[in-house]
Design goal:
single chain, 166 residues, mainly alpha, Ferritin, 6 helices, elongated
Length: 166
């Protein structure tokens, strides 16, 4: 009985450690991206753009990304446990990480809306790939990545609107 309990405790500790590691990595990406964003949403450049009517208020972006990265960290910890090809998973996660960081300076610092749309579209496709290909292993745990995917669809549409209307 004690060995079973210790085994379960060990698995829980390992999962918590994985979640913490992914939280640190994901929030590091947000921090780096935020550093390159500069004034970002309240900047004169962004404020002067014609934006989509469905653009959320500025405060919502921080709330959304915080919630998304918490869910995504739990998702990645679960996926790490269930994925057979860890190297492939690390490669995909790393690509996601750099795309996530790369959009901010591309869009907000360099004001390159076209390449920003390319980056965010690639990120959306990649997160959709995560969801679709890992559903058989994770099933309903895959819903943890749904907020990320949905937000990226919205963000891609916002980026596309700005490209077309400005």
């Amino acid at each position: 009985m004690d060995s079973e309990l210790n085994f379960v405790k060990g698995k829980i500790r390992t999962m918590i450690l994985r979640i913490i590691i992914f939280l640190v990595i994901n929030f590091l990406a947000l921090t780096i991206g935020g550093f390159f964003t500069g004034k970002g949403v309240p900047s004169d450049w962004y404020d002067g753009l014609l934006k989509a009517p469905w653009t959320p208020p500025g405060w919502f972006f921080g709330f959304a990304w915080t919630s998304i990265m918490i869910c995504f960290s739990i998702y990645m910890a679960q996926l790490w446990t269930n994925h057979d090809n860890k190297i492939f998973l690390v490669v995909l996660f790393t690509i996601q990480w750099f795309l996530n960081i790369g959009w901010n300076p591309t869009f907000f610092y360099f004001h390159n809306v076209t390449f920003g749309l390319v980056i965010i579209s690639a990120l959306t496709i990649l997160i959709g790939y995560f969801f679709y290909t890992n559903w058989p292993q994770l099933r309903f745990k895959s819903l943890l990545i749904a907020p990320y995917f949905i937000w990226l669809i919205i963000a891609t549409s916002l980026n596309a609107f700005i490209l077309v209307k400005n």
